[in-house]
């Protein structure tokens, strides 16, 4: 057996025969290449119908939970669109009317205030609220209520101070929902569907909202009144309102139930959504056993002020490193330029305000296609592979955007060159969304242990906020002063990201959240996460018999 085998697999080995592949196949066994033998056996014995009523209920539950992420996605798309409207820029006295969008210090402050709120205040509240007596649902409800207040304030803003205050409040709410909603979703999803289900629902609503925002912006931009920019901003009220209305109708996370000492309720939820209604289903029993082994009733998630379990062991520090890598890389891979797409299109030679907004809309559709394809493949290709090659492709496309913009942008008068720059801006959106859109919803929540997931996601939100604060504050100032040369910063950083991902990113596909503990305990977590073994599964007399295949570790 591999020296990297997990403890769960070692226990599994003690109970089953070891046979050659040829013998197993001759006896009619199904030979599988797996990372977690116990999970593979449980999944073989517990087959879920994706069209059953329980599965449809689960989809609807996750849709409601993802309204929090939808609110977060709205912010970037809405502000990116209204930042290209002359009506908005003139109303608030922001420079950049002739530059294709707001740039400079005023825009930097308006974009950066959201991340400042999330990083300074939100992180202090998000973890305790999500781990508290009201559970994940309490965190989602509180965050959504705060988003509602912030969205109403910015929609009705009369001057820049209203706008700044509203965005501060909005950022606070987004920070809380960005902690509670992904934690809830990844804990409710069955392990065999976790990647696709989490990613697809996230994408469906993130990009549906994005396309709605950018599409409405094209129509309202023709208006001369303040409705031109107020209407797109008002859309942010919708997802938060849905979350506030329906969140208390959702079941609580089974992992939270176990952490609160309510194992019977956890078993009911798992049986309904993971076990076809059978509390004795192998998958349900495996998950309950792993929950009880990994969740400590006296852990730091019971103390609102204690974040020590994020760093007090080598295991915890590696998990935190993975979470922070995704937090910073997900904001600094070039996607931060998305807030200023209308400015980028201007740099590439697009003069018309309406055409810039239309291109912004088209870019949203292209990105949605990339994200959908990436999500459909993340349980097949794997998180680590997508992360590395997606980042490498992002760097490659940004290099071409930089060259085309430098040679043919602005006042060069070469439409073919400008169109090439625009095409590769679209291609960048595609490859970035292919990799990062599903992984940003998966990697942090999968890597964090249950006892630290809520507080870890709060720290993830802090990392995202800090990274966004730098990008959103520096971005408009840099674009005003050095123009396209700012893209080179992202290219160099993407190359650094590729190096870090290659040497430190673990593969989380194909394992339960609890089994990942063995990976992070390993002396070489990357090697352990990539190790596989072969097992032979055969049904005899209504029982599933499992045999380890001799000398077949890969």
Automatic annotation (TrEMBL):
Gene3D superfamilies: MFS general substrate transporter like domains. SUPFAM superfamilies: MFS general substrate transporter. It is found in: Membrane. The chain crosses the membrane at residues 51-70, 108-127, 139-157, 164-185, 197-219, 231-250, 321-345, 357-374, 386-409, 416-437, 457-475, 487-505. GO terms for molecular function: carbohydrate:proton symporter activity. Pfam families: Sugar_tr. It is a multi-pass membrane protein. PROSITE patterns: MFS (PS50850). It catalyses: myo-inositol(out) + H(+)(out) = myo-inositol(in) + H(+)(in). Keywords: Membrane, Transmembrane, Transmembrane helix, Transport. GO terms for cellular component: membrane. It comes from the Eukaryota. Residues 61-509 form the Major facilitator superfamily (MFS) profile domain. PANTHER family: LACTOSE PERMEASE, PUTATIVE (AFU_ORTHOLOGUE AFUA_6G01860)-RELATED, PLASTIDIC GLUCOSE TRANSPORTER 4. Belongs to the major facilitator superfamily. Sugar transporter (TC 2.A.1.1) family. This is General substrate transporter.
């Amino acid at each position: 057996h591999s020296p990297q085998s997990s403890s769960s697999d070692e226990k599994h080995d003690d109970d089953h025969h070891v046979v050659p592949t040829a013998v197993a196949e001759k006896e009619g066994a199904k030979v599988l290449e797996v990372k977690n033998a116990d999970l593979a056996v449980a999944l073989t014995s517990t087959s879920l119908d994706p069209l059953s009523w329980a599965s449809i209920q689960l989809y609807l539950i996750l849709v409601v939970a993802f309204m929090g992420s939808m609110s977060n996605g709205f912010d970037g798309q809405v502000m990116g669109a209204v930042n290209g409207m002359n009506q908005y820029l003139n109303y608030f006295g922001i420079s950049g009317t002739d530059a294709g969008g707001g740039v400079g210090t005023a825009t930097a402050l308006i974009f950066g205030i959201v991340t400042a709120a999330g990083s300074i205040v939100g992180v202090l509240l998000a973890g305790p609220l999500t781990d508290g007596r009201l559970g994940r649902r309490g965190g989602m409800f509180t965050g959504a209520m705060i988003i509602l207040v912030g969205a109403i304030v910015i929609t009705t803003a009369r001057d820049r101070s209203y706008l700044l205050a509203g965005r501060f409040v909005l950022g606070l709410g987004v920070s809380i929902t960005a902690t509670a909603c992904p934690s809830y979703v990844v804990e409710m999803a069955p392990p065999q569907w976790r990647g696709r289900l989490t990613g697809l629902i996230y994408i469906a609503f993130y990009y549906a909202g994005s396309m709605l925002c950018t599409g409405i912006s094209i129509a309202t931009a023709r208006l001369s009144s303040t409705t031109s920019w107020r209407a797109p901003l008002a859309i942010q009220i919708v997802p938060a309102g849905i979350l506030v209305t329906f969140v208390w109708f959702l079941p609580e996370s089974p992992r939270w139930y176990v952490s609160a000492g309510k194992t019977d309720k956890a078993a009911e939820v798992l049986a309904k959504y993971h076990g076809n209604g059978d509390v004795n289903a192998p998958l349900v029993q495996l998950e309950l056993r792993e929950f009880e082994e990994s969740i400590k009733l006296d852990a730091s998630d019971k103390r609102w002020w204690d974040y020590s379990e994020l760093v007090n062991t080598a295991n915890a520090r590696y998990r935190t490193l993975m979470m922070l890598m995704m937090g910073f890389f997900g904001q600094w891979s070039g996607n931060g330029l998305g807030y200023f797409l209308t400015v980028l299109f201007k740099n590439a030679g697009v003069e018309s305000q309406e055409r810039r907004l239309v291109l912004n809309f088209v870019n949203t559709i292209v990105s949605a296609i990339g994200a959908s394809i990436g999500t459909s493949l993340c349980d097949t290709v794997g998180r680590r592979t997508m992360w590395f090659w997606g980042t490498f492709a992002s760097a490659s496309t940004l290099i071409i955007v930089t060259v085309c913009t430098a040679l043919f942008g602005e006042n060069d008068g070469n439409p073919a060159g400008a169109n090439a720059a625009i095409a590769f801006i679209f291609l960048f959106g595609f490859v970035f969304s292919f990799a990062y859109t599903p992984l940003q919803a998966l990697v942090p929540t999968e890597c964090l242990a249950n006892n630290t997931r809520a507080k870890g996601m709060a720290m993830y939100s802090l990392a995202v906020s800090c990274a966004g604060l730098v990008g959103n504050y520096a971005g408009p100032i840099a674009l005003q002063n050095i123009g396209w040369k700012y893209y080179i910063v992202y290219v160099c950083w993407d190359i650094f990201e590729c190096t870090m991902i290659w040497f430190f990113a673990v593969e989380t596909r194909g394992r339960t959240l609890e089994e990942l503990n063995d990976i992070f305990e390993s002396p070489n977590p990357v090697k352990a996460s990539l190790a596989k073994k072969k097992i032979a599964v055969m049904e005899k007399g209504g029982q599933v018999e499992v045999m380890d295949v001799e000398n077949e570790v890969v």
